[in-house]
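Objective 1b of the project was to move from sequence-level analysis to a structural picture of ligand recognition. The entry below was assembled by the postdoctoral researcher (A.K.) and checked by the PI before modelling. It contains the amino acid sequence of the target and the SMILES of the bound compound, flavin mononucleotide.
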Amino acid sequence: MLNSLLDDSKKQLSSALKHKKHPFRYCTLATTSLDGTPHLRTVVLRAFDETKFLITLFTDTRSDKIKELANDPRAEFLFYDTHQFLQLRIKVELYETSNAIEQYTQLPEPSKKDYSCVFAPGEPILAPELIRHDYEKGHFTKLVFKAYELEYLKLKRPNHLRAIFLSSEDWKGSFIAP
Ligand SMILES: Cc1cc2nc3c(=O)[nH]c(=O)nc-3n(C[C@H](O)[C@H](O)[C@H](O)COP(=O)(O)O)c2cc1C
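Corresponding predicted holo structure:
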């Protein structure tokens, strides 16, 4: 039973890469701000390696998450499926950061926009129309995280289902009270 929960979680994450409407395609990434407070944001799941338990996202090199992860490589992903009432909380550590220039150059122009604004994310601007892009000067960064803990929670009747899996315990898993 426990094994099937972990397998199902991985299956759902892989499925989110194939199906654009899968609720796990968009998730929340939490990092720790430089002042120690939590910092959450929505990101798109870009790759998932079931065997090594690696989660990949794309971002702008100038975004806060880059500085925050340089200061503290620990982070957490939150995935929520509204149809299944299923929540996954995955604790991770930054595993690899790369500019992945080849991947950036292959992106279609509308996608390149997300990483090539002449203003850095969070920089004050006078009006949204002033936004310009410099595709040559992309700030594309690929972040790969390695999971070390997964918490599975499914709300259902008569009993909710909650379990925790740790890499330090070879992902064996145990039930916990919901
Ligand atoms: C639907 C949606 C998807 C997003 N996907 C990403 C993403 O894949 N990567 C990313 O860096 N930011 C993404 N963002 C923007 C982030 O939520 C965030 O505003 C931005 O990355 C700046 O974050 P930071 O400076 O706190 O690191 C997305 C926002 C929304 C609303």
